């Protein structure tokens, strides 16, 4: 295979395919968030127990991302992505028809195994489509698909589930995953795997930097999902009508595109500054939500600020991790994927404990404290989050 990395414009078709696939992947992961009250009522479990559907999914990713990525390193990257999208379809169909909470949980775990492969490979894939110094912009463009999952996926499935039933929402999502698979097959070029960094004297420092990035990544996701998993519960507790929940999540989520655009414009030139600003906005928004709760207007306004910041988070940490060159792009993707999902699953579980124990008022403060911890890691690790632009063009990036 003679694939050569290109500019962002030339790689646009492939980046679009990855963004579309990322959209359905994120929506599949997070669709229970807006449907928790409906799922818990129908399957006769508590809202905290229903939230564990997010936890089970995320922990499958956390546990399996690295071993599955390593085990499949010799397989064609495009084939792996298409297979993962097919498993998403199967998982969503099983959830839609499952008669018991236990079977729903099993189907969600199956989706989590697919997610372990999908995001590990897609992060490395996006970085291989373009030349190394353009990786930040490429990853930011692909993560617009993730932002769209928040902006459109979760709110639309919430509105659909509210109107026609939560099972219908999962069936429609299965159809969307099928369409994304077809478009990925048509638009995404094949790229080779491999691309491990050289075993030179700086290898230890690169690995340390990668560990620092993934630690901050885990903390940021842990703080966010401690709150976001139960955002529908919090918003309903402010007096927001059930019928208004989907539109509210849509409006709030749409603001995340501002953060994603900010990341795309600045990451390759000012990684450290972009990371700090992003985490300050996320932590400030969550803290403001805690202070405003249970006032409806104040809570919605704070959630909007929080969403703007979080729109940049995925691109920030993916780019920082790739730039450390602490491992091959696929292994870097697996580590980012795994630690993010440790945060997602841990956040869902921690949020459930706080919600069922101390109460809903304590949930935002817990989440904000964890995001501040992520910010502290960034401030203390200058090598992992350097201030200047990426080297251009640079060492082998897996597709040269």
Automatic annotation (TrEMBL):
Pfam families: MFS_1
Key word Transmembrane helix present: yes
Primary location group: membrane
Lineage top rank: taxon: Bacteria
Keyword Nucleotide-binding in record: no
Entry membrane topology: Multi-pass membrane protein
SUPFAM superfamilies: MFS general substrate transporter
PANTHER family with a match to the protein in the record: CHLORAMPHENICOL EFFLUX PUMP RV0191, PURINE EFFLUX PUMP PBUE
The protein, known as: MFS family arabinose efflux permease
Organism field: Promicromonospora iranensis
């Amino acid at each position: 295979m003679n694939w050569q990395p290109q500019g962002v414009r030339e790689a646009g078709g492939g980046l679009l395919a990855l963004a579309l696939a990322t959209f359905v992947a994120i929506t599949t992961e997070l669709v229970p968030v807006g449907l928790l009250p409906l799922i818990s009522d129908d399957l006769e479990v508590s809202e905290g127990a229903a939230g564990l559907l997010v936890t089970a999914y995320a922990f499958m990713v956390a546990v399996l991302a690295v071993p599955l990525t390593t085990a499949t390193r010799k397989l064609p990257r495009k084939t792996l992505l298409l297979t993962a999208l097919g498993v998403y379809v199967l998982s969503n169909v099983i959830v839609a028809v499952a008669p018991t909470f236990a079977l729903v949980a099993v189907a969600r775990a199956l989706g989590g195994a697919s997610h372990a492969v999908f995001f590990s490979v897609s992060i490395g894939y996006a970085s291989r489509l373009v030349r190394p110094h353009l990786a930040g912009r490429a990853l930011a463009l692909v993560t617009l698909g993730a932002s769209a999952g928040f902006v459109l996926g979760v709110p639309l499935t919430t509105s659909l589930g509210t109107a026609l039933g939560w099972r219908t929402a999962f069936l429609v999502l299965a159809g969307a995953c099928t369409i994304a698979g077809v478009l990925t097959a048509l638009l995404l070029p094949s790229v080779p795997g491999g691309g491990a960094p050289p075993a030179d004297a700086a290898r230890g420092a690169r690995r340390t930097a990668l560990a620092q990035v993934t630690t901050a990544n885990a903390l940021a996701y842990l703080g966010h999902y401690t709150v976001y998993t139960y955002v529908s519960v919090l918003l309903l507790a402010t007096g927001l009508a059930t019928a208004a929940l989907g539109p509210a999540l849509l409006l709030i989520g749409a603001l995340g595109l501002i953060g994603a655009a900010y990341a795309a414009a600045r990451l390759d030139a000012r990684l450290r500054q972009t990371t700090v600003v992003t985490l300050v906005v996320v932590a400030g928004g969550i803290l403001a939500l805690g202070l405003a709760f249970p006032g409806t207007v104040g809570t919605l306004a704070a959630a909007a600020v929080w969403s703007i910041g979080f729109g940049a988070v995925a691109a920030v940490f993916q780019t920082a991790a790739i730039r450390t060159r602490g491992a091959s792009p696929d292994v870097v993707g697996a580590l980012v994927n795994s630690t993010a999902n440790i945060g997602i699953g841990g956040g869902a579980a921690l949020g459930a404990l706080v919600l069922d124990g101390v109460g809903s008022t304590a949930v935002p403060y817990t989440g904000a404290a964890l995001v501040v911890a992520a910010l502290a890691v960034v401030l203390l690790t200058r090598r992992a989050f350097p201030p200047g632009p990426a080297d251009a063009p640079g060492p082998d990036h897996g597709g040269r």
